Amino acid sequence: MARMGRLWCIGSSDMSAKQRFDRRQWMLLSLLGIALIGNTVVTYYYFTIRVPGGNDSIPRYYGARAWLFEGLSPYSQAVGERGQIAIYGRLANDSGEDKAHFAYPFYAIFFYIPLAWLDWNWARAVGTVCTEAALAATALFSFRFNRWSPPAWLAAATLLWTLMFYHGARTIILWQFAAVSAVLIAGGLWAIHERRDVLAGITLALATAKPQMTFIIVPLIGLWSLSARRWRLAISLLGSMIVLCGLSFIFAPDWVAMMLRQIESYGSYTDIGSPINTLTRIVFPFLGQPVEWLLNLLLAGWLAWEWWQARLGEGKRFDWVVMLTLVITNLVALRTATTNYVMMTPTLVYLFARAANRWGGRAYIWIAAVEAVMFAGLWVLFAVTVKGRIEQWPMYLPLPLGLLAGLIACRPRSLA
Questions:
Q1: Chain-centre distance of CA 5, in angstroms?
Q2: How would you classify residue 214: left for phi > 0, otherwise alpha for psi between -120 and 50, otherwise beta?
Q3: pLDDT tens-digit profile, the chain (416 residues)
């Protein structure tokens, strides 16, 4: 009887501890929900109805509304003209103004449908807050993927920095879908580390709604899952892509052709290409297109070789080559954007984690100093180079080239 009493007491203690833990979780979730709602209201009244912005989501927002309520193709000229009027108050001219094409895979529309019932200003307020949350979550997933636990003050500073440094702030102001794709990539990488392969496959497939950010990392993860015998990851990724593309063909049978046509015309109103293109066309124009192609080929070959070396495992080499892939994606993409650079947050955190592992607590001050220099340096560079409201080519170079140099410096020698 005494033994049974002790067991009952232990069981009761475990239950009460679990209940306290559950209550604590619910309290935190409730506080987070209240904070997000409050942030949305403040954003609406003090930002979206006063300050123009959110242009990068206008084509997707108007495309979602037109398809949902009128049955119009989001790729149609009529929908594009609505976006142009929303941006300029008139139709765009041919001097390089944004044509507001949908220009994404059709299934990107599913991310915007929940906002289609809201007017533009409220939709933008909700979208802006979601973008902020996505950037913060990208940083948190980066901490977990890299198994980095900085002190609370540095973690908080890094989260705040993620939102306020140039590339993050620009993503928020423009309401750029890059933040959603970035958090899905970072979440997928974390899920791979945690061996939550079904979740990883789903999140990485969803991230392909912005192909410019995933055209290298997702196929390579798919091939790696086969060589590493991560069958659930391979099946989940392939199955999710089949579902997304299948639904798109059901709702818009011509979506691939229409998307490619709009992507082809994108170059008519954008001038800045990849960082490699910028280096060979603007910084060192004597190099020309042949050297650009050669550099792209060398980077692609190098990346393929590194993935081949990491094809069987999940150790240091795998982590490093994934970080390298995120950087090279932004170096070689035919058309990139500085907002896409938020996908390299895991790479930056990877370098911070390596520094902390090597130098311990002494590295924390240096990490904070690096964040401060990057914050000030990028904003100053923007201020001295911007023409009107248009960022210029110097903004495309510092982050990817700096991260590439850091990765080369800390390339692991072991395959483990």
A1: 54
A2: alpha
A3: 555 455 445 455 555 655 555 777 788 888 888 988 998 999 999 989 888 889 899 999 999 999 999 999 999 999 999 999 998 889 888 777 788 899 899 999 999 999 999 999 999 999 999 999 999 999 999 999 999 999 999 999 999 999 999 999 999 999 999 999 999 999 999 999 999 999 999 999 999 999 999 999 999 999 999 999 999 999 999 999 999 999 999 999 999 999 999 888 776 666 678 899 999 999 999 998 899 999 999 999 999 999 998 887 777 889 999 999 999 999 998 778 899 999 999 999 999 999 999 998 899 999 999 999 999 999 999 999 998 888 999 999 999 999 999 999 998 876 55
Tally helices (H) and strands (E) across the chain.
Answer: 19, 0
In terms of Cα–Cα distance, which of 219, 262, 220, 216 is closest to 108? Answer: 262
351: enclosing H helix or E strand: helix 345-359
Let me know if residue 59 belongs to a domain: no
Instruction: With CA atoms as reference, report the closest residue to 319 among 360, 359, 358, 350.
Output: 350
| Helix residue spans in 44-119 (DSSP H) | 58-65, 77-88, 109-112
Contact 378, 166 (CB under 8 A): yes
**Nearest partner of 203 among 221, 223, 229, judged by Cα:** 221
- Other beta carbons within 10 Å of 189: 25
The answer to whether position 211 is within a domain reads yes
Q: Is 72 left (phi over 0), alpha (psi -120 to 50) or beta?
A: beta
Residue 309 belongs to a domain = yes
158 inside domain: yes
Report residue 169 as tokens: 């702030």
Place of tokens 């080559």: 321
The tokens for 47 are 């930002």
Q: Counting beta carbons within 10 angstroms of the beta carbon of residue 369, is it exposed (0 to 12), middle (13 to 18) or buried (19 or more)? A: exposed
Provide the number of structural domains found in the chain.
Answer: 1
**Cα within 13 Å of Cα(297), Cβ side:** 6
What is the distance between the alpha carbons of residues 66 and 81, in angstroms, rounded to a whole number? 12
Q: Are 415 and 313 in contact (CB under 8 A)?
A: yes
What range does the domain containing 292 cover?
128-250+272-409
